[in-house]
Amino acid sequence: MKVDLHTHTVASGHAFGTIWENSRQAKLNGLEMIAIADHGPAGAGAPDITYFRVGIRNPKIIEGVRVLFGVEANVIDDNGSLDLPNKVLEKLDIVMVGLHRDCGYVDQGLEKNTEVLIKAMKNPYVKMVSHPYGSKIKVDIEKITKAAIEENVLLELNASYFVEDKLEDEEMWTKIKTMVKILKDNHKKIIINSDAHTPYEIGDFTNVINKFDELGINEDDILNNDPAAILKFFNISD
């Protein structure tokens, strides 16, 4: 694996590495590219809007690793609005969206949650959804996956959910398999991310790889080994 597009720093308020430490560990782990995707301002302890305005000034190459600067934004209302304005989002390399509790949006049940997340995915700057199957705010994964295909939005396999206690959740595991099957049936690539909250988790996809056979995934199905294709997908110049 050459790429990890979901890593957090101390700026998120509950993570333990700096941008430099994440980059250095990525190099040590053999990665060529990472994304810094700290939580949007609506999250508890998360950075304010100024962090994201200034963050784009960081070097593009740190410790020999291509570093993309982005956000794991939060849905904050029934309209699918995000916690950063578009004038900031348009400057970021990567905009990922997730449904998180206590960030403005109130859980309204499966159907409404699904509708709202799809609205968020229609934002022209949103190119990826974080852990769509694992949020405590439930969504219809079949509808979300089909909408992601239509909107050309990536859905991640989040390595932090591939641990024994979480995989014992039969409902979540069924959602993961459903998501993967629909993506594969439609010849769409899958992105695997660590959701690292400490540098030592960056690029650790072992638990996901161990489930490849069960999910019917092979290397041709994933985007992680093609940094050039990732830059093209996110419209990022070299």
Report on the architecture of this protein.
With 238 residues, the protein is an alpha/beta fold. It is built from 10 helices and 8 strands. It starts with a strand and ends in a 5-residue tail after the last helix. The relative contact order is 0.16. Helix 4 (110-121) links the parallel strand 5 and strand 6.
Short summary of the structure?
33% of the residues lie in helices and 16% in strands. It contains ten helices and eight strands. Strands 1, 2, 3, 4, 5, 6, 7 and 8 form an eight-stranded mixed beta sheet that branches.
Q: Tags for this entry?
A:
alpha/beta; 238 residues; 33% helix; 8-stranded mixed β-sheet; 8 strands; globular
SSE blueprint and pairings:
Blueprint: E1 3-7, H1 19-28, E2 33-39, H2 49-55, E3 61-62, E4 65-74, H3 86-89, E5 94-98, H4 110-121, E6 128-129, H5 141-151, E7 154-158, H6 164-167, H7 170-185, E8 191-193, H8 206-209, H9 212-215, H10 227-233
Parallel strand pairs: 1-2, 2-4, 4-5, 5-6, 6-7, 7-8
Antiparallel strand pairs: 3-4
Helix-strand sequence: EHEHEEHEHEHEHHEHHH
Anisotropy-based shape? globular
Continuous helix count: 10
Proportion of strand residues: 15-25%
First-to-last CA distance: 20 Å
Number of strands: 8
Largest sheet: 8 strands, mixed
Low-confidence stretches: none
Gyration radius, to the nearest Å? 16 Å
